[in-house]
Amino acid sequence: MNLKRVVVTGLGALTPIGNTVPEYWNGLVNGVSGAAPITRFNAEKFRTKFACELKGFNAEDHIDKKEARKMDPFTQYGLVAVEEAMKDSGLDLEKINHDRAGVIWGSGIGGLKTFQDEVTAFNAGDGTPRFNPFFIPKMIADISAGYISIKYGFRGPNFVTVSACASATNALIDAFNYIRLNKADIIISGGSEAAVTEAGVGGFNAMKALSERNDSPQTASRPFDADRDGFVLGEGAGALILESLDHALARGAKIYAEVVGGGMSADANHITAPHPEGLGAMNVMINALSDAGLKPEEVDYINVHGTSTPLGDLSESTAILRVFGEHAYKLNISSTKSMTGHLLGAAGAIEAIASILAIKEQTVPPTINHFTDDERVDPKLNLTFNKAQKRKIRVALSNTFGFGGHNTSIIVKQYEA
Q1: pLDDT tens column, 36-54
Q2: Which of 103, 242, 280, 408 has the CB geometry, 3.0–4.6 Å to 169, for a possible disulfide?
Q3: Which residues contact 339 (CB under 8 A, 6 or more apart)?
Q4: Do residues 388 and 273 lie in contact, with contact meaning Cβ atoms separated by under 8 Å?
Q5: Which CATH number fits domain 6-250: 3.40.630.30, 3.20.20.150, 3.40.47.10, 3.30.479.30?
Q6: 8-state DSSP, 346
Q7: Rounded mean pLDDT of 212-239?
Q8: Cβ within 8 Å of residue 322, ≥6 positions away
Q9: Which residues are catalytic?
Q10: What is the model's pLDDT at position 34?
């Protein structure tokens, strides 16, 4: 079968270090941390009292107040990021085939705040069931794709992938596959998450997954550092407009990069811990390279999952060495979660954007907050510590892994006619 080539023609980002793509990229290359004390609720009694929240964001600046009240924040975030991406793409909605335009979105949790608020209110009452009529449609993860498709009239493939922290990358891979199989011309893809709530922070605290460095939030996310003690929870959204190359060329679109491959695998090991030898991470990168028809030595940059957990970072670095061999020492590797925190189901979207912009700007964003080498991490790996680096980047690979052992990798490449 003749597969279509797939390109990225629009980007949108709503992140803890910038509410637009230019602001986000500026934060990345300057090593800005988005971590700060939690403002969403009183976190005084929580073991972790900080997170990477959005800054200066008001949904009603973008969405009608009445409509915004019908949506959980994760849906609001998605709509705002998509609005930027659509404008950036230059798509003329009057000149496209809406039956061949779709939305494939990702969210690991969906409407957590809505669920928490509704159940809390019920338990505080006298037992009489008084629930918001929008409770269920606000909460369900797939509603984000529904709202996006309604706004733009896209009648093609429409669904949300749920694979924990791998969700958005799963969505991007699905979008890539639908287009290259000629089942759609355009797909809005990406992911959104809004888990900075009492239930979100409390739940991850109970697992001992979050950093508890309350005296220094901005240095708490420290991937690959010997003193890392867990991830920092983030929130936000990332949106990418994917198109078949022929559709993009026909309308004279700006092309950021080409999507050339995607891989998926399972650890089949533990519900939350990664495979100790990085087997799933190794397999997913091998699968992505095979799908892209690339050799390991053709990759220039890896945006790693790199959450800042003791086990996860070690597993991933081990997998990179096993897949790339001696070429691993010629790569640039970085974890942008050191700045944004972990956006869970939206992580893959903003990290794919970081990878694409790294190609566009020929600049590797850093892994900030490195203070002490971990003797278990090969010191010859270039983990781009603390400062962005200029280099030639033609191919970038982005990893995202999720609870349940879900692994995804997507590969983007400098567009060449």
Answers
A1: 999 999 999 999 999 999 9
A2: 408
A3: 17, 27, 28, 31, 32, 33, 34, 221, 365, 368
A4: no
A5: 3.40.47.10
A6: G
A7: 98
A8: 278, 282
A9: 165, 305, 342
A10: 98
- CATH number 3.40.47.10 given to 262-413: yes
- Tokens 């400098």 correspond to 414
Instruction: Give the Cα separation of 344 and 307 in Å (integer).
Output: 10
Cα distance between residue 141 and residue 109, in whole Å: 7
The single-letter code of the amino acid at 293 is G
- Which residue type occupies 296? P
CA distance 357 to 113: 32
Strands in 247-352 per DSSP E: 257-266, 301-303, 332-334
Q: Which two tokens stand for residue 358?
A: 């790294």
Residue 193 — φ and ψ, nearest 5°? -155, 145
Give the pLDDT of residue 276. 87
The whole-model pTM stands at 0.98
pLDDT greater than 90 at residue 195: yes
- Average of pLDDT values for 192-206? 98
Q: Provide the residue ranges of all domains of the chain, joining segments of one domain with +.
A: 6-250, 262-413
Determine the residue type at 145: A
Distance of CA 408 to the CA centre of its chain: 11
DSSP strand pairing (257-266 vs 406-413): antiparallel
DSSP helix/strand/coil, 146: helix
Q: What is the pLDDT of residues 268-292, one digit of tens each?
A: 999 999 998 999 999 999 999 999 9
Q: What are the b/e assignments for 331-370, b being 16+ CB within 10 Å?
A: bbbbbbbbbbbbbbbbbbbbbbbbbbbbbeeebbbbbbbb
